[in-house]
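Before the break, one more example. Copy the sequence into your notebook; we will annotate it together after we see the structure.
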Amino acid sequence: MLAFSRIILPNIKNIQTSWLTMGPEIAHVCLSSGANDMSSIMIEENVVSQAGKNNKLNIESMRKLIEQAGYIPVERNQEYEIL
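Here is what the structure looks like once it is written out:
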């Protein structure tokens, strides 16, 4: 779906994958399929964990995941500007 979205929606610059809800493995696949954002590191998360998901990533794990997908990890702000 992500790869297809990239083809038919070229005006959308940023597509985020939610590692929190889908897990790091699926987020890794999404990066290779058109997503260019991994969402954020959660300090405290209660909603998704109450629904039965317990995915956790720290900043180093997230960097490694992005690098393994063949990309350079960068930090951004809410406007998608690289910090």
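The two ends are 29 Å apart (CA to CA). Residues 2-68 form one domain. Try to locate both features in your own notes.
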